[in-house]
Structures are given as structure tokens and as C-alpha cells.
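The data are quoted verbatim for completeness:
=====
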Amino acid sequence: MKSLLLSLLLLPFSAGAAVKVATLHPLLADVVRQVGGDKVEVVEILKAGGDVHHFEPAARDIASMRGSVLLLAMGKHLETYLDKLRDSVGGNVKVVEVGRPIPSVQLDPSQEIFVCCPDHAKSSIDPHWWHSAENMKRAARVIADELAGVDPANEGAYAAGAKAASKRFDELKRWAQQEISAIPRSDRRLVTAHAAFGYFCKEYGFKSVPVLGIGRSDDASPQYIAQAIQVIRGQKIRAVFPEDQANPKVLAEIVRSTGVKLGDSLVADGTARDAHTFETMLAHNVRAIVAALKP
């Protein structure tokens, strides 16, 4: 009897209770809910409308994680505060970088998906892995495994949830491919301010032209701006795309210099108030790109 009581005290949550999971990105929160259903309670630390590049958890955020057994981060060095947060939450919360096992896209002019890249960003890792349906399927499997690790009694339910989520991601990928087929392959050039769409370009057959590299600075050398303008003119690129949380002056300069169309803003970080699930983000971006680039 004593050993049974001790075992119950050591459980991270009581039998039958929902598993409490804290997330550092709304896209992760959505996938956790898809995988875990009513067996999880999700605490969103970074909510829709937040800025992943400037966010850092406050004391109230850390307090809201109390009772969580998992803390899910995007990883790939996106959350620069993660080591400090690990110390704050202590050893009772497992911190999982969901993007860690996902193959990285490296910002490098030698990669086929890039038409040109700023020298200062060469060899940087693009952390925006969530622009790929295949990566979202990987994320669902990672999350299912982590949930099963803390709640083995419901392992089958989590596996089924990940399978259903993956099926939905496959459907969304097929929809996107169908929509993008309206754009001639020769026009599949995605000019954005920042290198946030490498995974999207790789999955859907675009060439990426990131004007400012991986960072969120609005600074670009005159030489690189001239190079970007040359690429846009030489490849007869039809549109450039700003991003929902960053609209640098350099894109406006390129538009003035080339007469190229300015497309609708794309959702880069997946935290837009109206597009913070993979489905809504992908639908918004695909429709904006197709509207600007199809004949």
C-alpha cells in the first residue's frame, strides 16, 4: 500500500486529468490540440498577435505554466531566451524543441532554392520550419511521442491524433499544390524582405530571393539592393511581398526602382491574429502569392 501511494505522489498529474502543456507559439498550441484533443490542457504563453522575435516570458507567464509537464518551443534558435527559461521553470517541466529533429534549410546562395542571398546571412539557419506541411507532420509525431511519454496510458489516442493531423496536413499540401499550379514555373520566384520562406519554397518549387537575409533589420547595403534589383529585372519577377510584422523601406525602394507589383503581406511568423494555425497561415499565403503571380 505504501509503495502504491508513493507512486501516485510521483505522478506528474492525477489519473484522468488532462495533461497540461505550455506552448511558446500559437502554431504549436494548435497542433497539440489536434494531437491531444480533450486529453490536454494547453497554456499559450506566446499568443496570436505576438512577435516571436521580440517576445520574452514575463513572471506572470512563468506563473501560468505552473502544473505543466511539457513546455513546447519551436527551436532552431528562434527562442533566444530558452536557456534562461529552462532555469526558471525548473526540472519538473520538460522543455521540448519541436523543430530540433526537423532538417534545417540553410541560407546559402549555393542552394538551389535561393536566387541570391546577402553575404552577411550566408550559412545561417532559417528557423521558420513551420511553412512546410511535411514538417508539420513531423511536429505532430514529435508532440504525440512527448505526450505519450508523460501519459503512457493514452499513447494510442495520441498516435491516432497525430495520424489525423498528418492526414489534414497532407490535404492542405495537395490544395496548395493545386492552387500554385496556376503559376507558371518560370514565375515561381518569391521575393521577400527576410529569408523566412525557404521551407515553403523548397516544398512548392519556388526560388527564394530574400532581400535582407535572416534577420529583422531593415538595413541592406546599396550593393545588395542593386543586386536584388538586377535579379528582379533579369528574371522578369512579377511581384515582391512584404511580411505581416515587418515592412522594410527597402522593398518600397525596389518597387519604385523596378515598377514591380507589391503583393499582399505574407504571414511569416505564424502569429497573425487571423492566421495563427497552419491551415489559416498556408491558405492566406498561397492565395496572396497566386493572386500576384498567376498570369
Q: What stands out?
A: The chain is about 40% helix and 15% strand. The longest strand covers residues 19-23. The domain at 183-293 is CATH 3.40.50.1980 (Rossmann fold).
